[in-house]
Amino acid sequence: MEPVKTMRAIQVVNAGPSAQLVMGDVSKPVPGTDEILVKVAATALNRADILQRQGKYPPPPGASSLLGLEIAGTVAEAGRNVQGWRPGDRVYALLAGGGYAEFATVHYQVAMPVPSKLSLTDAAAVPESFLTAYHALFRLGRLREGQNVLIHAGASGVGTAAIQMAKDSGAIAHVTAGSHPKLELCSRLGAATTTNYREESFAEKILSSTSNKGVDLIIDFIGAPYWDGNIRSLALDSRIIVLATMGGDRIPDFSLRDLFRKRASLLTSTLRSRSLEFKIGLSQEFHEYAQSRFNDGRLCPVIDTTFDWAEVSKAHRYMEENRNMGKIVLHVSGS
Question: pTM value?
Answer without folding.
Answer: 0.96
